[in-house]
Amino acid sequence: MNEPVQKAGKAAAQIAPAAVKVPARRGRPPKAPVPDQEAEPGRTNDPERTMADILAVATSEFAAKGLAGARIDEIAALTRTSKRMIYYYFESKEGLYIAVLEDAYSRIRRIEAALHLEDLPPEEALRTLVGFTFDYQLANPDFIRLVMNENMHKGEFISRSSTIIALNVPIITAVQQVYERGVAAGVFRPDVDAVDLHMSISALSFFNVANRHTFGAIFKRTLDTPEAVAARRASVVDMVVRFLRA
């Protein structure tokens, strides 16, 4: 397997939600700590840590139960804080849900930026990006579930977030630059749209997680063995590369 792609896969698998810096929502800095007599005794007032804890638990809750099914009471109990503090930081259940979406997109986009695709030859850069996308989505099923849930809402809450829209500009720019370098070098064919290419990469990686159980049940295949995952990964990378080759 290509060494840069291997490194990208390891980065995708090793990222931990607790290590992520919480993005300030709607351009506002985190609020100062508020006294919370309902919180567990002895818990220190650390806004950044508290918000990160809440986001980590809320991510799992919203991914598993959706916006309608998740309960602020349960999130408060699991984070050893209170509804009052959650509302203080995030204003509402919908505000917390949007913050979770922002955090999820922030994480993947930050790692993509660290791939340094500009330092690689075009085809190698493309293979690295596709391999990373496949590995990241495989290692982060909660991200897939959040996206599926938000699609059930027809993108209503993502549309409210200027942060998410801004976060996704760099990946399109990166795809465009890799593609244009490949066209200039004569290795990629012309007339491919960068957003369409990004959609194809995402779709091939997304389906592998979102539809694994139904696809496996229908066609009587076990799709989660290391051998099956490696074979599917190689197929996805090759499909995208062959699609672009001149």
From TrEMBL:
<dbReference type="InterPro" id="IPR009057">
    <property type="entry name" value="Homeodomain-like_sf"/>
</dbReference>
<dbReference type="InterPro" id="IPR041474">
    <property type="entry name" value="NicS_C"/>
</dbReference>
<feature type="compositionally biased region" description="Low complexity">
    <location>
        <begin position="1"/>
        <end position="22"/>
    </location>
</feature>
<protein>
    <submittedName>
        <fullName>TetR/AcrR family transcriptional regulator</fullName>
    </submittedName>
</protein>
<dbReference type="Pfam" id="PF17938">
    <property type="entry name" value="TetR_C_29"/>
</dbReference>
<dbReference type="InterPro" id="IPR036271">
    <property type="entry name" value="Tet_transcr_reg_TetR-rel_C_sf"/>
</dbReference>
<dbReference type="InterPro" id="IPR050109">
    <property type="entry name" value="HTH-type_TetR-like_transc_reg"/>
</dbReference>
<feature type="region of interest" description="Disordered">
    <location>
        <begin position="1"/>
        <end position="48"/>
    </location>
</feature>
<dbReference type="Pfam" id="PF00440">
    <property type="entry name" value="TetR_N"/>
</dbReference>
<feature type="DNA-binding region" description="H-T-H motif">
    <location>
        <begin position="71"/>
        <end position="90"/>
    </location>
</feature>
<dbReference type="InterPro" id="IPR001647">
    <property type="entry name" value="HTH_TetR"/>
</dbReference>
<feature type="domain" description="HTH tetR-type">
    <location>
        <begin position="48"/>
        <end position="108"/>
    </location>
</feature>
<keyword id="KW-0238">DNA-binding</keyword>
